[in-house]
Design a protein that fits this description.
The chain has about 250 residues and is α/β, with parallel strands linked by helices. It has two domains: about 130 residues, 3-Layer(aba) Sandwich (D-Maltodextrin-Binding Protein, domain 2), CATH 3.40.190.10; about 100 residues, 3-Layer(aba) Sandwich (D-Maltodextrin-Binding Protein, domain 2), CATH 3.40.190. The chain has a five-stranded mixed sheet with strand order 2-1-3-10-4. A three-stranded antiparallel sheet has the order 8-5-9. It has a two-stranded parallel ribbon with strand order 6-7. Strand 1, helix 2 and strand 2 form a beta-alpha-beta unit. The protein is elongated and about 60 Å long. The termini are far apart.
Length: about 250
């Protein structure tokens, strides 16, 4: 009897391990953090599997993949980091654009800072000394940080605001800074600005796409990707996935 029970338990354990092994292991830009649960549920509804997702800045995730991280799909917020993996021979092909990212200016509701499309409120706060901390993602490895720097340079605020910047390791941490006591506001992805936890605590305005280089969200399958991962890759360009991404602050490819 004990032998039968042990065999049954072993079989169940093997099923769990096999199911886990078949779950796509995905490296995803932090801007996707709030959209991904909905994308996963929609994928499962089509007959797909659960996902295992690691979020981070595109630059850091790309470096981890180069160092041997066992990801099967890379959902980057930037084409350059995908190209670097292609050049290293780590991908199945050249991948595809699945969305375009947008930036938003947000300030904490209790910051006393005005949110205007022309950044007039930020300029006034800088001139009066009321601006103490302003958050952007690190431009060195976060695409949204690079875009934020481009925006601030375009409107002539980069040199003035630089001493007050606090840099997030990724855009998700940047949003956390912007709604906490760490900063009075910041430039974050529009996808995170729309998230209920952020929207409830901030005033916000969307930044024109023409103010920075396009944030091309580029995905690529990595060598060794299982068929379940390929299925999710294909799903990401489906009308359903595009509708979810659009509702979560991304522009369609």
């Amino acid at each position: 009897m004990l032998r039968v029970v042990w065999i049954a338990l072993s079989f169940c354990l093997m099923q769990v391990v096999n199911a886990e092994a078949k779950s796509p292991l995905i490296a995803a830009a932090s801007s996707l953090r709030f959209a991904m649960p909905e994308l996963e549920q929609a994928f499962i509804a089509t007959g797909g599997t659960n996902l295992r997702v690691s979020f981070g800045s595109s630059g850091n995730l790309s470096r981890q993949i180069m160092q041997g991280a066992p990801h099967e799909l890379f959902l980057s917020a930037d084409t350059a980091y995908v190209t670097a993996l292609i050049d290293k021979g780590l991908t199945k092909d050249r991948g595809a654009i699945y969305a375009y990212g947008r930036l938003a200016l947000i300030t904490a509701k209790n910051s006393g800072l005005e949110v205007k499309p022309d950044f007039a409120g930020i300029r006034t706060a800088l001139a009066s000394g009321r601006l103490k901390r302003f958050a952007i993602a690190n431009p060195e490895h976060a695409p949204y940080g690079r875009a934020a720097k481009e925006v601030l340079e375009k409107i002539g605020l980069w040199k003035k605001i630089r001493p007050f910047l606090i840099l997030g390791e990724n855009i998700s941490q940047t949003a956390q800074f912007a709604i906490s006591s760490s900063a009075q506001g910041g430039l974050v992805s529009y996808s995170l600005a729309l998230a209920p936890v952020v929207a409830a605590k901030t005033k916000q305005v969307q930044i024109p796409m023409s103010w920075h280089q396009p944030l091309k969200h580029h995905m690529v399958l990595l060598k060794g990707a299982a068929k379940e991962t390929v299925a999710f890759y294909q799903f990401m360009r489906s009308p359903k996935a595009q509708e979810i991404l659009s509702r979560n602050g991304f522009s369609k490819f």
